[in-house]
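We emphasize that the prediction below concerns an isolated chain of 141 residues; any contacts that depend on oligomerization or on bound cofactors are therefore not represented. The input was used exactly as deposited, without trimming of termini.
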Amino acid sequence: MIWDQNTIELPALARGVYLITNDVLSQGPDLRNCQVGLLHLFIQHTSASLAINENADPDVRGDIERHLNVLVPANAPHYQHTQEGPDDMPAHIKSILIGPSLIIPVSDGHLALGTWQGIYLCEHRDHGGPRRVVATLQGRW
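Result of the prediction step, given as a token string:
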């Protein structure tokens, strides 16, 4: 049985949905010798989230971002937490809706993602800071 853990450092990005599969593969635990296992990803922030969705057409990421902004608008009159700016409370709500973590199966040294699946960073702040994702691999050699 193996356990390995790395922290993936992502640069500051503007609000949006970003494909980070390559960052996970390059900075995360070494999957090559894992026959079967699970990769757990956890973002250490309350205004960004992680998701899995289409990796081919970037229009999907834009559509998701636009829909989230309609679903959870800035400057809603019922927000009380406003001292950090009009994008902060919506960022917290979006983070709860999408979630801070993913569990991805590992098979024969590779992420067992579907053909069109990729790992997303959903940055919910207008000007989010650098983000940290803890990547923990549990598996069998």
